[in-house]
Amino acid sequence: MMARIWRLDSTSGSYAVKEFRDFVDVGELASRVEASTQLANAARESGVVGPRAVRDSAGELVGRVGIGDDSDAVYASVSKWIDGRPLQLTRDVSDAAAWLGRTAATIECAPDPPAAQSLDPWLMNWLTTVPAIFEWQTALEQSRRADKAWAELLSARLGQLTRLAESVTPATDARQSVLHPDMQPKNVLVTSTGFALLDWNDAARCSVDRILARTLIEWFTPGGVRPDLITGFMRAYRADGGRGVIEDVTAFGYAVAAFLNYLYETIQSELTSDRASGDSSGELVAALTRPLDTSTLEDVLAVVREIS
Question: What parts of the sequence cross the membrane (predicted)?
Answer without folding.
Answer: none
